[in-house]
Prior knowledge:
Blueprint: E1 2-5, H1 12-20, H2 36-48, H3 55-68, E2 77-80, H4 99-106, H5 113-116, H6 122-130, H7 136-149, H8 152-155, H9 165-172, H10 179-186, H11 193-205, H12 209-216, E3 221-222, E4 225-226, H13 228-237, E5 245-246, H14 251-254, H15 261-274, E6 285-286
Helix pairs in contact: 1-3, 7-11
Amino acid sequence: MAFGSEEAAFDYQTIGQKIAALPAQSAAFVDYQKTYATQLNEFYQQTLNLSIDQPNHLLGISYAVANARLAQPMQLVAIERQQAQHADQLIQTGVYASASAIRKVLAHTPVDLTTVQPVVPATTMAALTTQQGVQWSQLWPLLQYRINSTPLAELRQVYQMSEGLEYRFKKVITQVDSYEALLQALKTKRYTYARLQRVCLYVLLNIKDTAIQQTLEQPYVRLLGFNQVGQTYLHQLKKQLTWPLISKISAKLGAETGLLGLEVRVDRLFEQLTNTHQNFARQPLFYQGKDVE
């Protein structure tokens, strides 16, 4: 498994194994004046004398811990971040840019694609010129309506809506006039902007704890693409898999209680805003190039 990191030479494999062997500490992270990431960092420093001050480095360690707990752990490959760092807001001279900087350019109207062309692959550039994206400026009226119209008790059931956050949503929604202003009004030391952005999406899509739990209890393997070698391997693998192998979405899979119910719920909204079909009728990609064993 490959991932980007500010510390590519770090021994993620070993550290992941050491942390995975420690007693569970999730119940200890109860300081509401600090984010979970801050408390996790402090825990690593106290237990392993490990100081982490880069976001992708911390994320890579989380990958390593989860990987170490697998029955058959994968080999971890850290790729060094170059030129652009996490959350950089500007595209500098060079061939790399942060996703945040690229998204910021794409959020402007009209979009200046010449700015992002040097820092994205040709296939991505082609998609950007032919496909319509979705911005929060389009979603804001829908989110505003959802918060205003949802009873407090129901809002409390939304995934990750914890520690009375639903009261803050109800309080500030009448005081703001944009998505960005909503995030600023909700922000506290406890919650990062990334966490609040996720909760806003859960509210918009009405994703509740029960739906997430149901999804976690029904794992599956989604086939996105393959080549001739992969096709042969898939025939062998089908006999061994205990999880469903999904190559295309049917009405049953996309139903509200189906394995891909949540994914299709997101797709429906995207289709509504862009008139672009998502999962239904799409087939896995088949690569006909030279096979590599």
